[in-house]
UniProtKB/TrEMBL annotation:
One of its GO terms (molecular function) is methyltransferase activity. The keyword Calcium does not apply. Signal peptide: none annotated. Keywords: Methyltransferase, Transferase. It comes from Microbacterium arthrosphaerae. This is Methyltransferase.
């Protein structure tokens, strides 16, 4: 079967006519790396940050094998698997965490540049620590998302950096000469007694974003009711850890599709001494949670799919929360008031009341209808 980037789908991520599964930066990365990839032996090619499989499957179709891949979003990982199945390329790669096993012995790395400098630093240092000394990293992205600070971060871990000509508003940075390096470790910051831990790329880093702060100030006193208490789209685990500290009898599930968020939330739970009562799960929405199993869900929904803003993400989360909530259970949501989520909450979950509102955010409580 002939592989074409035009056949890629984003599923199970949000799909819409204005959301693409590959772009010009993927194509430029593939073109700039073609010679290096063809010289790499099986197992020497690593792909990091592939959106939906464009880089991995193109490399596999070009003869690559033993490709190791890391994607932060679980939806990206699952989209890669689905696209590989359709293209009959399933056996050409393995998905791995961002760890030594991912990059050990690598000689060629294809990297879609993350927006976060801390995420880029974690990746660059990991490669420098464990890849072969002659590793070549092709790091590409859309010019509008690239900054000169990215060059400085890469130069901290590599001796030489070359910049390609731009094409279709995309560019590739090529780095060689790995030096130093280290395994990623979470950054830490304390806020009013709560220790927040964050690996690179976790939303808000070690700070607490203002929407989450507003939600925390409104959360009700919870008692053990037999149903799960869930920190949905948990990020660094601030809500889950706070609830666990406030209510020593509670057991909480914190979930997120981001690998960096899940690692950060686990570190946050450990740092605050509540890891025995906060279960952290990497999940697509609430896919692993049983029907009608939760009594309370807290949610600060994202509105980005990758770098794209899309209004269809939150309603999907509301619908999945409704599936998991028991009748009478509550979904507490904080949202930017301009987004006007209340009708969607009423439609997908049930009767919704406003708990609090300030100049920017609204907190609502939606009761799952019977």
């Amino acid at each position: 079967m002939t592989f074409s980037l035009d056949d890629l789908r984003r599923w199970p991520d949000v799909e819409a006519p204005d959301l693409v599964a590959s772009d010009a930066a993927d194509r430029l990365l593939l073109d700039e790396s073609v010679s290096a990839r063809r010289e790499a032996a099986p197992g020497e090619l690593v792909v990091i940050g592939d959106g939906y499989g464009a880089l991995t499957l193109s490399a596999a179709a070009d003869g690559g094998s033993g490709i190791r891949v890391h994607q932060d979003p679980l939806t990206g990982e699952r989209a890669l698997a689905a696209n590989a199945h359709r293209a009959a390329l399933t056996g050409a790669f393995a998905s791995l965490p961002l760890s030594e096993d991912l990059v050990r012995g690598a000689r060629v790395v294809l990297l879609r540049l993350p927006r976060s400098l801390d995420a880029l630093r974690d990746i660059a240092q990991l490669i420098a620590a464990h890849a072969e000394p002659d590793v070549v990293v092709f790091a590409g992205g859309r010019v509008k998302h690239m900054t000169l600070a990215m060059n400085d971060v890469l130069r901290d871990s590599f001796v030489r950096l070359d910049v390609t000509h731009a094409r279709q508003k995309s560019r590739v940075l090529v780095v060689r000469g790995a030096r130093g390096g280290a395994d990623p470790a979470p950054r830490r910051e304390t806020h009013d007694g709560l220790v927040v831990c964050a690996f690179g790329g976790a939303f808000a880093g070690t700070s607490i974003d203002i929407g989450t702060r507003f939600l925390l100030a409104q959360l009700p006193e919870l008692v053990t009711s037999g149903g799960d208490v869930i920190d949905f789209a948990c990020g660094t685990g601030v809500v889950g850890a706070t609830l666990a500290l406030r209510e020593p009898a509670l057991r909480i599930v914190a979930c997120d599709q981001s690998a960096a968020a899940v690692a950060s939330a686990r570190a946050t739970a450990i740092a605050n001494g509540v890891a025995d009562r906060v279960e952290v799960v990497r999940d697509d929405m609430l896919g692993s949670r049983p029907y009608e199993s939760a009594s309370f869900i807290a949610l600060n929904p994202p509105f980005h799919s990758g770098s794209a803003v899309h209004e269809g993400i939150a309603p999907r989360m509301f619908a999945d929360a409704a599936r998991v909530l028991r009748p009478g259970g509550e979904l507490w949501t904080v949202w930017n008031s301009a987004l006007r989520y209340r009708p969607a909450l009423e439609r997908h979950v049930g009767p919704t009341r406003q708990v609090a509102r300030n100049a920017k955010f609204t907190v609502t409580a939606s009761t799952r209808r019977s």
